[in-house]
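Journal club prep — side note

Before the paper discussion, L.F. wants everyone to see what a predicted structure for a comparable chain looks like in token form. Sequence:
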Amino acid sequence: MHFTRFWSIVEATHDISNPCTPQKLDRLIDLMGFHADQHILDIGSGRGWLDIRIAERTGARITAIEINPWFNEVARLRAQRAGVHERIDIIEADGRTVTLTDQTYDAGLCIGASFAVGGLAPLLDTFRRVVKPGGLIAVGDIFRITDTLPAALDELGPVPTLAGLVDQIRGDHEPLEMLVATLEDWDRYETRKWQAAQQWIAANPTDPEHDDLVTAVATMRHDYLHYERPHIGWAIVVARV
């Protein structure tokens, strides 16, 4: 099963595609101080909740990059219904292939999707190139909460501590604030995937990829409970470029 279809199924009922809450994202909008004259870049924009909220609350213009066509379909419909579709330009593409002009954007967002451009370091390089000097960035990413990680998480590559994540994101400037996911935030985000998957599995018994999804979801649930939940945290860090 292609990863875009997998995520469209397991996150079918998610408004926000990361372990965060509407209240924390509203706090993020306040911290960033967006206004109607600004142009914001959002890499890995998902189903569009944050971009729509920014446009509704501040009038800012957003360029959103998202590879998943199912997510983009939902985002465009939501933006249309909210009356902010003219302020949100969704580019459906792999983030690593999109040409972005230097010093174009007033702010940069990537909330849980650094993989869209190849990882945290390439993401920060991109932001420091395309965000205007003095602009703000907000990056949501994982960190380790234990001294070491189990071998089962080797595919994640090097995972910093929270302090290491903040230091890497801040670059040459001091970070402004961080918003850390609670264990309740994580559980809400993950268990909702299980529910959405089970609904799809029950409704699509003859789909050619039915069994693949059953296996993938069982693995995802096992890995979260045994490895990720005890060892991995998640936070949004706001900094100035």
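L.F.'s comment for the group: The first strand starts at residue 39 and ends at 43. Keep this in mind when we get to the figures.
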